[in-house]
Amino acid sequence: MYNATLKERFLKTYPEDTAMVYRNSLIQIDEAEQNHDCDCFNFSVDELDAAFKTIRSRSLGGVRTIVSPVLEYIRWANQQGFVKSKIDITPLFNGEKLKEYIWDYASKNRYIYREELYAICDNLINFVDKSILVLVFEGVLGKDYHELTNLKFSDIDFGTGEMILTDVDGVVREVTIAHQKSLDILKECKYETTYLIGNGDVDLKCRMKEFDLLETPYVIRKIERCAKGDEMSPVSNGFLLQKIIRFFRGKVDNNGFVIKEPFISDAVFLSLKSIYTSGFFDCCMELEKQKGGTLETEDYKKACIRYGINLSSLQTYKGRYLDWKDSASE
Fold first, then answer.
1. Which of 59, 95, 89, 58 is nearest to 73 (CA)?
2. Neighbour count for residue 98 (Cβ, 10 Å)
3. Closest among 76, 81, 91 to 13, alpha carbons compared
4. pLDDT, average across residues 173-195
5. Region label for 243, one of left (φ > 0), alpha (ψ between -120 and 50) or beta (otherwise)
6. DSSP class of 245
7. Which DSSP string do the residues of 148-169 spell out, in sequence order?
8. What confidence tens digit (pLDDT) does each residue in 212-237 have?
9. How far does CA 188 lie from the centroid of its chain?
């Protein structure tokens, strides 16, 4: 970290947890400081702008998390008399300006079309794994993923595609899956009794590659060797998150080197939430086709209800959809 002694002095003005977050943010612009051989608080407006454009964050929230501590550091340095110009340029890096620093490649690749969903599923061996992605894309999520983990085969009518979803607080809602391929994947999952570890790529240290799935009423199930406590209980949200890490991130050591490749290549920007949002986008596109024109507020309301999205977030999801459409058309 460039000029580390001074930066650590700044960080000591914050609680330990906050200082750790701020330190990570300051590290993000270290390369720019090294290139200029200059602390960021003496950057020109253009130099600071260029440094922020190297941020590898895929969301506005992520950009704020990085930019805000850097601006705080610059303001602190100015107050301490370290800024040569004495001019505070930090107000220029707020509001709409921050959108310019979203990592464009990541932003474009964090959402998928339905065809891409099924292509990803084709690269997964186990139908339990495929079902996780399909259900989330179809709008099954809930608070802390409880709609997903609570779903039983008895909640699905494979003839009509109707599903009954139960959230953690007991709230029940009904949705219908209209796409046969999604239903076919879920149906195959129902009859799956074994699970291939490593997506079929067996670790040489492991004597077995195939394990029995627990016989529970739930769609998402563990293998028997991982069962702890009540075997008939649903899986945890931690179980799902670990699955996603193996799907898209792989496994890294303490130095950040990949020691196990992810099951799906070129999908590092995906997450359960982005797949869920992709499904919402797919729903909006279907509504546009049916309507033959631009969606109105009532149409977005229908999509939100279909995906269990609180209507207070309607404008947020509408904005995400329109931004994604503009980005996809470029």
1. 89
2. 19
3. 76
4. 96
5. alpha
6. I
7. HHH-BGGGB-TTT-EEEEE-TT
8. 999 899 999 988 865 555 667 889 88
9. 27
pLDDT of 228: 59
Task: Give the integer Cα–Cα distance in Å for 288 and 151.
Answer: 30
Q: Answer for the pair 262, 268: CB distance below 8 angstroms, yes or no.
A: yes
Which phi-psi region, left, alpha or beta, contains residue 96 (left: φ > 0; alpha: ψ -120 to 50)? Answer: alpha
Name the nearest CA neighbour of 65 among 46, 74, 77, 52. 52
Q: Which range has the worst mean pLDDT, 40-49, 209-218, 226-235, 302-311?
A: 226-235
- Which among 69, 59, 65 has a CA at the least distance from the CA of 99? 59
Of the candidates 22, 27, 2, 28, which has an alpha carbon nearest to the alpha carbon of residue 10?
A: 22
Strand 194-196 and strand 172-176: the pairing is unpaired
Which tens digits make up the pLDDT trace of 109-158?
A: 789 999 999 999 998 999 999 999 999 999 999 999 999 999 999 999 99
Output the 3-class SS for 192-212: CCEEEHHHHCCCCCCCCCEEE
